[in-house]
């Protein structure tokens, strides 16, 4: 029996960003099923950190503050991010986009924008497959063999990634304003309007500061308590645990059209 996936708080945001561009739910699910097997759909995931933890968070902070310089990040030979980009060429592209004004190399919108840039340029055939998909398995396998290209490209790998893709499809596409995503804590899941949602921040080496609503509307009972509650409204909601010494992300606004922050750069 397949193992149920865990939402680390980024599923709906990544889905919304990619669906606004690709426009095909089967294709988006296939792409994200691969991301889950690579990084748990966590944009700051560092290869070997299973599942993503303070190890990845600390590495990301070191890249952001320059302790890990550009050359060392690009040429480390280890994977990073949603797609676990590993080659120096692709990691250089990610780093170049990061330096255009994003606050962190682990920013989720930076990474979805980079995925879109790659699909629009170097991986145009993958984009065509995603946009024209009529089932979940076919685009999942195509991404495995033509975009991710890991060591294990077996039938078993295809099946595992397609199973993740199917679960993500049900969470992100079949859930109409019923989903809560909790970044940095527990409580993610489906809720009905009016339900009481309890969220708890995961313990880290940082001191908990407060909860921040990233998208949707909700009134937290106590935003500065590591465990708090809110009443589910009629929207999908994403809430993030923040810590002393870590930056607070800006609110997320997505539309059915391409988000205004997501401009694809031409590759010269």
General description of the model:
- With 268 residues, the protein is of the alpha+beta class.
- The protein has two domains: 162 residues, Lysozyme; 65 residues, no CATH class.
- Helix content is 40%, strand content 13%.
- The strands form two sheets. Strands 3-1-7-5 form a four-stranded mixed beta sheet, with helices on one face.
- α2 packs across α8 and α8 crosses α9.
- The C terminus is likely disordered.
Write the layout of secondary structure elements.
Layout: H1 11-22, H2 25-39, H3 54-65, H4 70-74, H5 88-98, H6 108-120, H7 124-131, H8 137-148, H9 155-172, E1 179-183, E2 185-186, E3 189-190, E4 196-201, E5 208-215, E6 227-231, E7 237-243
Parallel strand pairs: 1-7
Antiparallel strand pairs: 1-3, 2-4, 4-6, 5-7
Features:
single chain; alpha+beta; Lysozyme; four-stranded mixed sheet; 9 helices; globular; disordered C terminus
Q: What is the correct CATH architecture of the largest domain?
A: Orthogonal Bundle
- Radius of gyration from CA coordinates: 18 Å
Q: Provide the low-confidence segments as ranges.
A: 248-268
Query: SSE order, as H and E?
Result: HHHHHHHHHEEEEEEE
Count helical runs. 9
Shape: globular
- For this structure, the CATH topology of the largest domain is Lysozyme
Structural class: alpha+beta
**How is the main sheet built?**
4 strands, mixed
Classify the beta-strand content into a percent band: 5-15%
Terminal residue distance: 47 Å
Strand tally is 7
The helix fraction, in percent, is 25-40%
Give the number of domains: 2
CATH class of the largest domain: Mainly Alpha
- How are the strands ordered across the major sheet? 3-1-7-5
Query: How is the quaternary structure best described?
Result: single chain
Give the rounded overall mean pLDDT.
88
């Amino acid at each position: 029996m397949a193992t149920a996936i865990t939402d680390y708080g980024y599923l709906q945001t990544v889905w919304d960003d990619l669906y606004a561009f690709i426009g095909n739910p089967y294709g988006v699910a296939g792409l994200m099923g691969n991301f889950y097997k690579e990084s748990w759909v966590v944009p700051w995931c560092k290869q070997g950190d299973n599942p993503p933890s303070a190890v990845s968070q600390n590495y990301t902070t070191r890249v952001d503050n320059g302790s890990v310089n550009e050359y060392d990040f690009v040429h480390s030979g280890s994977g990073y991010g949603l797609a676990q980009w590993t080659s120096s060429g692709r990691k250089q592209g990610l780093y170049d986009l990061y330096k255009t004004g994003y606050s962190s190399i682990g920013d989720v919108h930076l990474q979805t924008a980079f995925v879109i840039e790659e699909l629009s340029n170097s991986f145009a055939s993958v984009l065509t497959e995603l946009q024209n998909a009529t089932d979940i398995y076919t685009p999942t396998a195509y991404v495995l063999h033509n975009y991710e290209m890991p060591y294990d490209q077996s039938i078993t790998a295809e099946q595992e990634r397609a199973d993740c893709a199917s679960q993500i499809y049900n969470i992100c596409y079949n859930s109409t304003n019923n989903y809560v995503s909790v970044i940095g804590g527990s409580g993610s899941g489906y809720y009905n309007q009016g339900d009481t949602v309890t969220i708890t921040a995961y313990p880290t080496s940082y001191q908990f500061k407060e909860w921040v609503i990233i998208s949707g509307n909700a009134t937290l009972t106590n935003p500065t308590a590591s465990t708090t509650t809110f009443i589910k409204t009629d929207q999908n909601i994403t809430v993030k645990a923040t810590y002393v010494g870590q930056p607070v992300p800006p609110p997320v606004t997505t539309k059915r059209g391409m988000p205004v922050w997501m401009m694809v750069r031409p590759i010269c």
